[in-house]
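Appendix B.2, paired examples.
Example (i):
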Amino acid sequence: VQLQASGGGLVQPGGSLRLSCAASGNMPSSSTMGWYRQAPGKQRELVARVTSGGTETYGDTVRGRFTVSRDARKNTIDLQMHSLKAEDTSVYYCNVRQPRWSSTKYDYWGQGTQVTVSS
């Protein structure tokens, strides 16, 4: 599975940005797709993920500001970000992994896209 992310960039505080990620290759339709982020000197953290059944999970710091959406036909996942803050500055990574119930483990990562929130 290959993941291609796009949409990062520089945005002012309070602004909006949309990230997109397309999965290619043999991605099982039951996969969970998500976005994570990692700032310098910090651990990678969950931003948002969505299961094949449509269950969404958000990180505490983005809930209410970010919205994740998934297109099962296109194998894409988007992240719409609103009310961006300086602390949202990070490298954002697209992820595909096995569903929680699966005994077959896999975990794929995209190359990362930089989001910088600054005036």
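Example (ii):
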Amino acid sequence: VQLQASGGGLVQPGGSLRLSCVASRTILSFNVMGWYRQAPGKQRELVATLTSGGTSNYADSVKGRFTISRDNAKNTVYLQMNSLKPEDTAVYYCNARAYDFNTYWGQGTLVTVSS
């Protein structure tokens, strides 16, 4: 399984970005898909997850600003990020957990929030 993440870049504080994660197989085969991030010198942390049943979960730090969604027909999961802050700067990784508990990671996409 391959997960291809894209959409990162440089954005000013208060700006928006949308990350995309395209899977090499139907995302209906995954129980949970999500986004994690790792800032320089910090551990990787959960940003948002979305279950196959449609339940979403967010880190407190991004609630109300980020939205996770999916397009089953495109095998794609999105992360819409609004009101970005400098502390959101990190490499963002796509994650997928299958029903057999195998876990897959994308290659990461860098988000830099700076003026």
